[in-house]
Amino acid sequence: MKQNKYNRLKIGLMITFFVIISLLYLMPILWMFISSFKTSGALFTTGFRLAIKDITFKNYLDLSSIPFGRWYINSLIFAGGYITFGVFICSLAGFAFAKYDFRFKNILFLIIIAAQMLPIHMQLVPLFVMLAKIGFINNYIGLILPMIANPFGLFFARQYMVGIPDDLLNAARIDGASEWQIYLHVVLPISKPVLAALTILFSLFAWNELIWPLVVMRTEEMFTLSVGLSTMVGGYEPQYGLLMAGSVLVIFPIIALFLLMQEHFISGLTAGGIKG
Amino acid sequence: MFKKLFYNKKIMPWVFIFPFLFIFAIFKAVPIIYAAFLSLHEVNGLVGGDFVGLKNYIRIFSDSEFYTALINNTKYMVGTMVTLIPIPLVLAVLLDSKFCKGKNIYKAILFIPALVSLVIASAVFRILLHEGDTGILNSILGWFGIGPQKWLVNPLLTIPSIILIATWRWTGVNIIYFLTGLTGINQEMYEAASIDGANVFQRFYYITIPLLKPIIVFVATLNLIGGYKLFTEVYVLWDGGNSPGQSALTLAIKLYRAAFSYFKMGYASTIGFVMAIIILIFSLIQLKLTGFFEEE
């Protein structure tokens, strides 16, 4: 009986502790939401106070005065292109590395993985110069194409596909399937979890990345959301209210998706091992 | 003829890797070689450039800003080690306890900050860290009788402010890593230790920490590598990275400025190369420590 009471106390303390921690970690997001209904002037002076009469929807309406919708579309194009082509070529090459023997296989794999360790920063300047020479600066192709051959994507796909039993592929071969049909109809359906994780990893990158689109996209109407929002903090009159309204519209779809498909998000982000 | 090709087990793997390899060669391999080439040249703008040998490398090692940046990156890296290992580790152990009810809810909530882009996170923290006494963090400190701090203005507090953002964003992800490790620990070990009279702290110190060592090493190296890539937070917190007294100047900010403010493409490439070497060394240490080389 006494033991029981002691355990209940522990459970209670645990709940209290984690509720406080959760509130602490949610606070910045909550604050973004609240700030999006304040005027830019009131943001810094009212502190915790939010009077009903101060609530304004002006920030959301004012988003139409900047190319916010265009940035949203650009980010969707970036994410869509990156996912479509990136997941396709990574899974295709990952399949070859997982299930076939060919010359130079190990050395090629090693070179690709070694390249993954190099930071994108090293390639920024050469890529910019190369893209400028062929006229792909400020261009969707120039934004997407250099990103899609993602060594990590290949590695992740390969690791998963190694686990597919060879018997399954051979059975398909006996049934008269070509190697391409095996990829399309046997390997891809089995690999759904890894394809989902890659999709999430790539789309979060496209949605959140700053430095790469900042280098490639040079005019306002070609900015992605990250680049566009980063231009709003600077200057003599930063438009924080507007910025917070935009931020709410950027992160809430992601959070909604996360709540729907938590496991895929977690495996995509943790497997990525990339902080940023 | 064409159809037969699809059945060829010798040729099809090459067809499968071709798109990846082609794009990889053009947009990954060539830029790396080109970066090496550019770093040996003095290039102003996009065209031309004179071969200058190792001049850019000599210049970088006599550039005081380079050392400032290196030290700032290192400070940030050390800071994330101090926060982003113990905090997630303790939270993961608590979440793993049988007395923790509703752990999936807490896990999800703590993970959400990782979904917020660095641009938005930095923008929100510009508001939270506002230096006046109406700033949000300063208001909270006020409840405990601590005076308002000039977070983003005082050069001593700029790096701690970035560490705060990193800690907020990444705790949830590291919790997942540690929880994965904790599920692998046999519960009987704890029970045996309890019977032998080990208290909670002794069990944590003598069982949990040693068994989680591979994961701790993994998380530490992620911090190590991430520490030298720092860019976005500084760029957004101080309007393009003009932090007070260069107190948050980083290698990536220096590279970006050299390339896109001063158009010194050769020198910028040199900075990129040096960054890559630093990160490569740490990555190799990570692979060595996590036993990658023994596996295959």
Secondary-structure map with pairings?
The complex is a heterodimer of chains A (276) and B (296).
Chain A: H1 2-35, H2 40-43, H3 58-62, H4 68-99, H5 105-116, H6 120-133, H7 140-148, H8 151-161, H9 166-174, H10 179-190, H11 192-208, H12 211-216, H13 225-233, H14 240-260, H15 262-272
Chain B: H1 2-5, H2 12-39, E1 41-42, E2 50-51, H3 55-61, H4 64-84, H5 86-96, H6 103-111, H7 118-128, H8 136-143, H9 158-183, H10 187-195, H11 200-211, H12 213-227, H13 232-237, H14 251-260, H15 265-289, H16 292-295
Antiparallel strand pairs in B: 1-2
Helix pairs in contact in B: 2-15, 4-5, 4-9, 4-12, 5-9, 6-9, 12-15, 14-15
Give a verbal description of the structure.
The complex is a heterodimer of chains A (276) and B (296). Chain A folds into two domains: 2-60; 64-272, MetI-like fold (Orthogonal Bundle). Chain A contains 15 helices and no strands. Chain A has helices at 2-35, 40-43, 58-62, 68-99, 105-116, 120-133, 140-148, 151-161, 166-174, 179-190, 192-208, 211-216, 225-233, 240-260, 262-272. In chain A, helix 4 (68-99) packs across helix 8, helix 4 (68-99) packs antiparallel against helix 11 and helix 14 packs across helix 15 (262-272). The radius of gyration of chain A is 24 Å and the shape is flat. Chain B is mainly alpha-helical and 296 residues long. Chain B contains 16 helices and two strands. In chain B, strands 1-2 form a two-stranded antiparallel sheet. In chain B, strand 1 and strand 2 (50-51) form a beta hairpin. Chain B starts with a helix and ends with a helix. At the A-B interface, helix 1, helix 4, helix 5, helix 6 and helix 7 of A face helix 2, helix 5, helix 6, helix 7 and helix 9 of B.
